[in-house]
Amino acid sequence: MARIALVTGGIGGLGTAICIRLAQDGCTVIANCHPSEAAAATEWQAARAAEGLTITTIAADVSSFDDSTRMVNDIIAQHGTLDILVNCAGITRDKTFRKMEAAQWNAVIDVNLNSVFNVTRPAWEGMLERGFGRIINISSVNGQRGQFGQANYSAAKAGMHGFTMALAQEGAAKGVTVNTVSPGYTDTAMTLAMDDAVRASIISGIPMRRMAQPAEIAAAIAFLASDDSAYITGANLPVNGGLFMH
After folding, report:
1. How many CB atoms lie within 10 A of CB 12?
2. Nearest to residue 152, comparing CAs of 112, 115, 180, 202?
3. pLDDT of residue 194 exceeding 90
4. Within a domain: residue 45?
5. Which of 2, 22, 155, 174 has its CA 20 to 30 A from that of 47?
């Protein structure tokens, strides 16, 4: 029977690659989007169908515990289970700390970190009861090393792995693994929109001299979502081309 997978932020650049890879691996995939993205989600779903993939979308504000709970409960009601959860939703509100306002701090913490609790909490009990679960939290190289102008983002992404390590201990004896993937700079719409000089400067600092392809990040996530990764939990898998080695 196909595993049921939910990817938050699933219609974004990286989320799309993750959804495609999990669907290609035989999972039944549900891509989460923000309620404001309903029209974009319809177009996104049609594009996946044109590629021969049946991936459904579900709208929910993952910064809201109640809306996240409703989303997870709806998925379980429809499919009977939720086996794989990829917490990929994220935003940036970059500012140097002396100029950062509380609203910019709170927005990033709410979407990037609090969402991990909000979506995982309603899925957790069922995974423990069924004796199987794969939770993969998408952090960032900047959660490992910090980044100028990203105190909010770096804090949230570092916090995700603290959550991973703690929850991994609670799920280990029950067949539920919890892991982190920390991508480096990746070719998505966000990085392609960068000034050419900034982009070239970033690439020059990466030992592999290129950014990751989204499919390369998705491949790491697919491995951690598979049965082959059953003995890996609490890990932080860096996929950054050698940008940060620890």
Report:
1. 26
2. 112
3. no
4. yes
5. 2
Q: Which residues are catalytic?
A: 153
Tally the C-alpha atoms within 13 A of residue 76's C-alpha that lie toward its C-beta. Answer: 19
Q: How many domains does the chain have?
A: 1
- Considering the domain boundaries, does residue 175 fall inside one? yes
Whichever domain contains 114, its CATH number is 3.40.50.720
Cα angle vertex 199, ends 193, 201, to 5°? 160
Is 31 within 8 Å of 5 (Cβ atoms)? Answer: no
Q: Which domain holds residue 53?
A: 4-237
How far apart (Å, rounded) are the C-alpha atoms in residues 35 and 24? 26
Q: Is the dihedral angle over the CA atoms 27, 241, 209, 152 positive or is it negative?
A: positive
Sheet architecture: strand order including 176-183 = 56-59, 28-33, 4-7, 84-87, 133-138, 176-183, 236-239
- The stretch 91-95 carries a mean pLDDT of 94
Query: Using one digit for the tens of pLDDT, what is the confidence trace for 1-55?
Result: 899 999 999 999 999 999 999 999 999 999 999 999 999 999 999 999 999 999 9
- Residue position matching structure tokens 């495609």: 20
Domain-located, residue 226 = yes
Q: Is 144 among the domain residues?
A: yes
Burial label for 26, CB within 10 Å (0-12, 13-18, 19+), is: exposed
